[in-house]
Amino acid sequence: MGRTSKMSLCELAAPRSIQTVKDVSAEAFIASYAKHLKKSGKMTIPKWVEYAKTGVSREMCPLESDWLYVRTASLARRIYIRPGVGVGGFKKCYGQKKGHGVTPGHFSTASGKVIRFCLQQLEKMGLVEVDAKGGRRITKEGQRELDTIAVQAGATYVNYK
């Protein structure tokens, strides 16, 4: 009978090495990638952003001034995790229930213009390309950039805790 080795609590609680976007929490990655997009200056922001709603079901435009960077970062993460999704699929993902007061609410999709604009900006940066089967997918350069941001986001998120 051999002795079984027992792992200490420190070894069990030690964080895994973060290498891809899937290893980081969505909140940490989206926040750090939105900050990176804003700081890099690669993305152009149109004038209609301060007046645009993100969907029919919304009553007002977003209150944050950098909401378009956050939406673009979220779209990049979703394409990384699930390639082949198009504008229609993203409209369903970001849609929500529209309230009608007393009567029951019904689902309404998000704004296609906002999603299309974000995807076009990601294409201009060379991070996303149109898939032959339909939808969008991440390029090799885009995967490299998103993974480096994920490693940085994971390191700051672990140190923050």
Molecular structure report:
It contains six helices and four strands. By secondary structure, it is mainly alpha-helical. The N and C termini lie far apart (42 Å). Residues 8-14 have low confidence and may be disordered. The strands form two sheets. A two-stranded antiparallel sheet has the order 1-2. Strands 3-4 form a two-stranded antiparallel sheet. It is globular, with a radius of gyration of 19 Å. Helix 2 crosses helix 3 (67-81) and helix 4 (87-93) crosses helix 5 (112-124). 47% of the residues lie in helices and 11% in strands.
Strand content: 5-15%
Biggest sheet strand order reads: 1-2
Class from secondary-structure proportions: mainly alpha
State mean pLDDT (0 to 100 scale). 83
**Largest sheet at a glance?**
2 strands, antiparallel
Helical amount: 40-55%
**First-to-last CA distance:** 42 Å
Low-confidence stretches: 8-14
Number of strands: 4
Give the SSE order as H and E letters. Answer: HHHHEEHEEH
What is the gist of this entry?
This protein has helices at 9-13, 26-40, 67-81, 87-93, 112-124, 140-160; strands at 96-100, 103-108, 128-130, 136-138. The protein is mainly alpha-helical.
